[in-house]
Amino acid sequence: MTGIYRHLYIFYSFVFLLNIIYTFWKNETLYSVIGLLAMIMMVVAFPRAGRVFKILGIVLMAAGSFFFLSGSMTLGDIPGLFAGNVGLLLLLSMLPWMNSAVKAGRYNRLLKDLLEARVQTLGGLYGRSEATMVSLAAFLNLSSATISQDLLKEQLKKVDTKVRNSFVSMATLRGYSLALLWSPLEILLATSIFITGANYLEVLPWMLIIALLGFVIDTFTGRLLFGNIELPEKKGGSGASKKGRLKGFILALVLFLSTVVFLANVVNFEFLFAVTIAIFPFALLWSLVRKRYRSFWKIGVPTWKHHTNHLDNFIVLLLSLSFLTETLNASPYLELLQEPIIAYSDSPLVIMLLIQFGFLIMTLLGVHPLATMGIFGGVSGLLMEALPAVTLAVLLSSTAIATVPSAPYGLIVTITSVNFGMNPYKIVWKNLPYTLVCGFLGVAVSLTTLIIY
Question: What is the pTM of this model?
Fold first, then answer.
C-alpha cells in the first residue's frame, strides 16, 4: 500500500487532465466519468485524512445524503455531484511549482536579509516582520511563515519567552493573512471568485485596500505593544543584494498577476482555471530567465509529487463539499436556508455581518473556512440578488481570510504552536481582535463597493 500511495500523483493527474479537457469540451458523459473517478479519490484519501477532516467529511456527506433523498435526483446523478470541485484540487496540486521557482531563485534568502536588517526595538521589528510576510507570502505561502519564524526564534532568543511567542504569533500569522487577501494563489480568494463569477481585476483593488488598512492598523498596534522593548544590535545583509532581489521579486509578481488577468479577461478563461493554467509555464519561464532551471526541476518534481500524493485532507473536504452543495441546490430545504437572506434582503449590512460571524463561529468550532465558503456558495444565487458579484466576492474572501490567524486547527496556527510550544488556543486568543477588525474592514469595504456596483 505504501508503494501505491507513493504513486497516487499519477492517478490524480489523470483525473485533473480530464478536468482540463472538460473545460474545453463540455461533455456530460466526460463530466460523469470525472465524478466517478473523484469518488474513487475520496475512498482512497479518506483513511489518510486528518481526524478533523474525516469528521467534516462525514458530516457534509450525511447532510448531502439527507438533501439527496429529499430531492428528485436519481442514482445516475450521483457521480456528477462529486465533480464540481475537482478544479480546486487541480489548483492546489499546482501550487508547489510556484514555490519551487521561488526557492530555486533563492528568494527565500531575501526574507532572511530583510528580517536581519538593523532595527532598534521590537516594535520596529514588528512592522518589518509583517511587511516582509505580506511581500513574500503571496508566492512562498506557508514556507514564508516557517522560514520567518525560525529566523525570529534565533533573533529573539534573548527576549522573554512570553513576549517572543506573542510577537511571533501575531506578526507572522497576521502578515501571512494580509498577503492572502490579494494573492491569486490563495484558494479562499479563488473560490469566492469562482462562486460569484466576479472579475479578479475588479476585486483586486478592494482587496488591496483591505490589506493596506489592515497592515497600517496592525503595525500601529504592534508598535504600541512592543515599541519600548530594545533589541541587541543585528548586522544586516547586503543592501544592494536585497534591493536587486526585491525588485526582481516584485517584477515577477506583477508579471504573474498580468498573465492571470490576460487569460481571464482577454482569453476569457474562468479565473480559477486561468490561475491554475498559468502557474507551471510561468514558474518554468521564470526559472529559465533566472538561470535556475536545474534547481527548479530538482526541487519542483519531488515537491510536486509529495504534495499531490498528500492532498487527502482537501480531497475529503472539497469533494464532500461538492456533494453537499449540489444536493442542497436541488433540495426543497434550500428554501428554509434562504429565508433569513430573504428577510434581510433590504439590509445589506445585516447580511454581511451574518456572513462575517458565520465564518468566525464555524472557524472557532474547527470547521475549515473553505467548507463554510462552500455552504454560502450553495445559496450564492440568492445572495447575488441582494449583493453585486464584486461585493459578494470581496465580502466572502475578506471575512474568510480574516479567520486564518484564529483557526485553532488551521495549518499555520498548528505550525506556530509546534514551533514555539504554544497552546493553539492562546494563539487564537492573541489574534482574535485582529480577526474581528479585519472582518469589519472587509464588511466596511464591501459596503463601499455598493456605491459603485
Answer: 0.78
